[in-house]
Design a protein that fits this description.
Length: 110
């Protein structure tokens, strides 16, 4: 008989476990960035891991900015630079914006 992997279930308390892709994201850009796309965070990032930049082709089409999980060095410079307070450390994302953890992770899975 063939064994199939069970779909993951949310842990006790109703919150689902983070996928490996979501766990490797150090910082999350959330809802306040939508439509704003202020690039102050891009300017202070020492490793250029926040995209799209204004000089990248997909800047106009994108609704918000994203932090590349493989490029981010977890320095936190972007957090105080964000004028709309849209950037949070993974473990500090407000409950109402937890869905942005997956949105940020999935952006770079394309």
């Amino acid at each position: 008989r063939r064994w199939r992997r069970r779909p993951s279930r949310p842990p006790p308390g109703g919150r689902r476990a983070l996928s490996p892709e979501e766990q490797r994201v150090a910082y999350i850009i959330c809802e306040p960035c939508i439509g704003t796309k202020d690039s102050a965070c891009v300017d202070v990032c020492p490793v250029d891991c926040i995209h799209p930049r204004k000089d990248e082709g997909d800047f106009e089409a994108s609704t918000m900015l994203y932090i590349h999980p493989d490029e981010c060095i977890d320095c936190g410079a972007c957090v105080p630079a964000c004028p709309v307070e849209a950037i949070f450390a993974l473990d500090e994302v407000p409950e109402k914006w937890k869905n942005y953890i997956a949105i940020n992770a999935e952006h770079y899975q394309k």
